[in-house]
Amino acid sequence: MNAELEQLKHLGFLKIFKESYNLIVSKWRHIFSKIFLVFIFPFCFLILADMILTDHLSLSIAGKTINLLDDYEPTNMYNRQMKHDRDVHSILLGVFTLLYFLIGLVVFYLFAISAISYVVACIYASKDTNLKQAIRVVLKAWKKLVVTYLWNFVIQFVYIGVFVALAVACVVIGSREGKLIIGIVIGVILFISFVVGLIYFNVIWSLASVVSVLEECYGLQAFKRSRDLMKGKKKLCIGIYMVFQVLLVIIQGGYFTLALFLFPVFVYVIAGIVFFVPLLGVVLLGFVVQTVLYLVLKSYQNEGIDKSSLGAQLDGYLGPQGRPISGRKNVQLNEV
User: Fold this and answer.
1) How many domains does the chain fold into?
2) TM spans, by residue (predicted)?
3) What's the half-sphere exposure (Cβ side, CA atoms, 13 Å) at 132?
4) What is the CA radius of gyration of the chain?
5) Is the pLDDT of residue 42 over 80?
6) Residues 6 or more apart from 318 whose CB is under 8 A from it?
């Protein structure tokens, strides 16, 4: 059913998706189902809730701001109430955004990565596992993963800050007499470079998150490690990343399209039915693909060692309690 580890280096774009799908629907589907309910379902629910609340509050804030700009009389009771409502909605938007970051991303998102990375590695190491063991691993691996994620946040914050500063410089250049064309050209080149760099960095992060769980390194070392693993396979990594980004954009775009044309009461129902289910599938498959891709890259880099070394690495979280999975053939796994 699943590719042996020495064959993983030969898996291409479509076969990586097939391999990941086979893992989910095979005899290990019971553990994936439990992880799905415990971690991925709440995470996706928070994504949908954030989309709905952000959309509703943002439109409300924008509408009230426009009305106040058109006709604002400080002594007008209606305008004072509108300003108060706008400020309250702005605070609520900030609170919801912070809660989504702390609970949705830092907790459920990282928990899901840790659990699925561990389970997929156990499958290839021919080790039995269950939800209880996965949760124990999550609580230990999560600490390393948080450090890596915080570095990801800091680096992206600095990267975006530099881009904004350069964009302002382009505006200044373009505002000068006779420099408009130069400013536009520089701005377009800068924007394209920014998008390409952001995509490349996010690909590195997706691998660094798995590295932080299955290897000893984390933080900046995990980013360096994932960049090294990508050598010779960058197009494959970027292609897989873009597939999931496009799918998520389609899901989010579909929701916002409905939000423009339907009444709010229908938006909640339709969004929950039409967009929540595919979102669940995309997120689950995406997490599994991340780990399979990591193993493919390690195999491609010829870092081969037998499954016992991976088992020892996994036992570092739990102690040597893993048992061979019955019926699973011996596989060669690259060193973790």
Assistant:
1) 1
2) 35-53, 91-124, 145-174, 180-201, 236-263, 269-297
3) 3
4) 23
5) yes
6) 133, 136, 137
